[in-house]
Design brief:
The protein has two helices and two strands; from the N terminus they run H-E-H-E. The chain is an alpha+beta fold. The chain has a two-stranded parallel ribbon with strand order 1-2.
Length: 70
């Protein structure tokens, strides 16, 4: 699943939220998730907002998120 965005608008945050909701059922419990700062480097999104969305959407599964610097 690609969660990339092209600009920094509220619509982009919503798209990330929707994609994570769609992806969540496919993630097994107790996993590590490695991802870049989705949409924040080239997309210009605020990492604090994106991080909050990630944890809100994936809160019910035991996981850790490792943020990779690319």
């Amino acid at each position: 699943y690609e969660l990339s965005v092209n600009s920094s608008s509220d619509e982009d945050y919503e798209k990330i939220s929707e994609n994570l909701s769609e992806y969540k059922p496919k993630i097994p419990s107790c996993v590590k998730i490695v991802m870049p700062k989705v949409g924040c480097q080239n997309g210009g999104l605020d990492w604090r907002k994106v991080r909050k969305i990630i944890y809100e959407k994936l809160d019910s599964i035991a996981f850790s998120v490792i943020i990779a610097r690319i």
